[in-house]
Predict the structure.
Amino acid sequence: MTDKIFSYQISVPDGCMAKTVVTPIKALSQNPHIRTFCEGLTRLAKDRNLNSTDMRVLIYIAGIIEYENILDISQAELAKQMEIVQPEISKSIKKLCELDYLRIIGKVGRQNIYKLSPHFAFKSRAKNYRTMCNDWDEVEDT
């Protein structure tokens, strides 16, 4: 398969023109990616409780989450990778948990395992999205 991007034009009944770009799935899967959502990004942009460090940490986390939105990294390692002092990482993660962008879902030794809200970003199969959101919302309601 070539790295060619195909473009198609679609006529819309009311006389408007819609344009879409289709790329082969294989080309997408060669680069790690997540899905982000307008609602989550809008919430983030409007959230006055977050400072710039909190936003940087959240965006970095979205970039390194594992399948099913799992974050399995120590705060010390996250601080090292982001070149931010560990106490600042700790404050940001605590705030992100309080604001429900992140949740602690377990522990390995002394290290917390986190899950990123699927309402903000999503790294899984598309068919799992609704289930992950429902599971997230059910925990919130209890």
About this structure: The longest helix spans residues 52-64. The chain has one domain: 35-141. The longest strand covers residues 102-108. The two ends are 49 Å apart (CA to CA).
